[in-house]
Amino acid sequence: MAQSSVKEAVNDVPGLRAVFVTAMPDCLLYDSWIRPEESWAAEEAASYFGDLVRANREGLRALKSWSAEMQVTIESADLLMIVRELRGDFVVTLAFQRDAPLGMVRLHAKRVMERLDQLLPTLEAQERPRAVKITEFLEKYAPDPHAALHRVALRTGIPLGTLRKPETLESSQVALLESSVCDILGLESLSL
Amino acid sequence: MSSLRRYLPEHDLMYFGPSPAVYHCHHFNLFLDQTIDDALGFEAGSRLRFLAAREFATPLLAGVAEQSKATTPAEKLELASKLFAGMGHGRLQISADARGGEAKGSFLHYGYSWSQKYGHVVKRRHPADAFGAGFAAAATEVALGTPQDTMTATEVGCVALKAPHCTFSLKPGERAPREPPVGESEVGQQLIPTFNGLYEEVIQPITKGLRDFTAPVQGDERGLVQAFGVYVTLHLAGYYNRISYEAVQQVERKAPHSLGVLEDLLRESGHVCVFNTFGGIILSPEWEGMVGPLTGEALPIVTGCIAIARALGFGRWTVAEFEPGKRLVVRAPCSYESVFYQARYGKAARPNEYFLQGACLAIAQLAHRVEWKNKPVLNADYYNALFRGGPLPWKVEQTKSTACGHPVTEVVVTRNEAARA
Fold first, then answer.
1. Res B256 pLDDT > 80
2. What integer pLDDT is reported at residue A6 of this predicted model?
């Protein structure tokens, strides 16, 4: 999607600081627009919003309260954000100035989502190897990401060079990888 | 506390009471413990860390009790608590008799600093204070005169697991196999004549100034030493060395193909330590007061780091060669690692001073990759931005070690031409 398209979709929205479009299920940045005076890196932020919606979906399912229409509203110290899943293909995040009225934000968010729904293509779901997703998840959330793969290698006995090509792992190695990543991150299971 | 600290000035090694000792930060302590557990699994890793703590706390506690003329169990347990807090390990209160008992800890260095550094990022599944457990067991044995190497301690509550404080259950157990001691006399037998390197006229006064500065430092009301952006401990060198070398030996036996990654991670513990602690010292107002403002040149960072290493008891590290942007060669007559290895295990098959290797690599990174004049904040984000991905612009090789019978220990750090800037 061309940059101008995202910009066109949001150009009349007051108080908007950025929009991030995250492609699902891999949580990769698809497109973004950020106000020129902001110093944010879209790539660093976008994947977390995908994970956020995924975790929110699982939480709501656990409460038997999930619906496709749900959206997440975040009120931080200096941002008001709306995070919403669009057609299962994308997660759209709108970051507003903190002092923007919530009612106005919701109204504009609804309009922007409708525009983007028209603009964004339907993605062909590409199922990537689970080991690739696990490795990406580890490197995103591990406390010492520069050493994370070394730790997995030491814990599992899988050679470092093999771990650097996760798509080549055998199924028994994938199970070892997933178990060690769960241990390192202190999680019961990985929501991927 | 300060009267217990002694240096071998020619070799820049340190003793605390009768025990070889060094200063180390929480970055090093946490990463090293984590690496041991990654290598051996939590059960075996924490067992080794407990045994090492108990082994090396015992001569310290016995020696200091004798020196202080503490004779009753209550006096000796009180002295142990004071030592533990004075060394920056937190507050530990032990209540035990020959049948066992309990120890209660607050602000324990490992658990507390783990919570501070990692608690908001990951959930921990196992307690963190095997060092505190070993120290409590040793204190109980020394205080009560029960057989050495028999008291066990299990951490049943830990602040790193969100408990309100740390709790240990003490019980008598089976006697663990006795290891050959590594104290002052054993270390002394390994020492060869010392030597100087380049820039001694700069390095030696800074080392002296830092020693004077750190002499009165001891734990605050929490029993912690918080300075230069890190939690600092006065620690037992034998603890670090035993857990590192026994982990290496076990991995060599059971999973030799994993030895390389273990050695990488042991080096990384030195790297993260030096980058954060030495960097924090160099950025401090105290450093500017003692050494002067930072110029942005690489050489003052290298000489400053060598001086800091000596002051912290790491050994007589010297600058043998330095070409800014190209090459750093550090030589030493010994390190706190080499003397331990020789005393306990004999001649090493290959150079294996992992902390020294990681430290020298970090010195080159500090000298060349940090914009000192911008006064950067040395936090996790900064560290990850510099060192995530690879290959990195500097590489390290230990070419000689006195533990192998070489006349010197030598580490060479060179520019990695194939790497990113």
1. yes
2. 83
Whether residues A150 and B268 touch (CB distance < 8 A) is answered with yes
pTM: 0.86
What are the φ and ψ backbone dihedral angles of A10, each rounded to 5 degrees?
A: -125, 5
The CATH T-level fold of domain B17-172 is Muramoyl-pentapeptide Carboxypeptidase; domain 2 (3.30.1380)
Q: Which residues of B touch A150 (CB under 8 A)?
A: 261, 264-265, 268
Task: Give the residue from B134, B127, B146 showing the smallest Cα distance to B103.
Answer: B134
CA B226 to chain centre: 16
pLDDT (tens digit per residue) in A78-93: 999 999 988 878 899 9
pLDDT at B390: 67
The string over A115-152, giving b where at least 16 C-beta atoms fall within 10 Å of a residue's C-beta and e elsewhere, is ebeeebeeeeeeeeebbbbbbbbbeebbbbbbbbbbbb
Q: What is the DSSP letter of B176?
A: P
A114-150 pLDDT tens trace: 888 888 888 776 778 999 999 999 998 998 999 999 9
List the CATH code of the domain at B192-415. 3.30.1380.20
Does the beta carbon of B348 lie under 8 angstroms from any beta carbon of chain A? no
Report the 3 state secondary structure along A23-75.
Answer: ECCCCEEEEEEECCCCCCCHHHHHHHHHHHHHHHHHHHHHCCCCCCCCEEEEE
Residue in B124, B255, B387 nearest the CB of A186: B124
Residues in B touching A183 (Cβ below 8 Å): 125
Tens of pLDDT, residue by residue over A16-42, are 999 999 988 888 888 899 998 888 888
Cα–Cα distances in angstroms (integers) from residue A49 to residues A129, A161, B185, in the given order: 21, 31, 60
Please list every residue in chain A whose beta carbon sits closer than 8 Å to the beta carbon of residue B380.
143-144
Query: Which of the listed CATH numbers 3.30.300.20, 1.25.40.10, 3.30.450.30, 3.40.50.850 matches domain A3-119?
Result: 3.30.450.30
Residue with tokens 């964004």: A120
For chain B, give every domain's residue range. 17-172, 192-415
For chain B positions 11-50, those within 8 Å of chain A (CB to CB) are: 31, 34-35, 38-39
CA separation for the pair B92, B90 (Å, rounded): 7
Going by pLDDT thresholds of 50, 70 and 90, the confidence category of residue B260 is very high
Which residues on B lie below 8 Å from A48 (Cβ)? Answer: none
Q: Sort out which chain B residues have CB atoms less than 8 A from A185's CB and list them.
A: 122-123
Taking CA–CA distances from A184, the nearest residue in chain B reads: B122
- Which candidate from B39, B123, B387 shows the least CB-CB separation from A154? B39
What value does the CA radius of gyration of chain B take, rounded to a whole number of Å? 21
Beta carbons of A143 and B121 less than 8 Å apart? yes
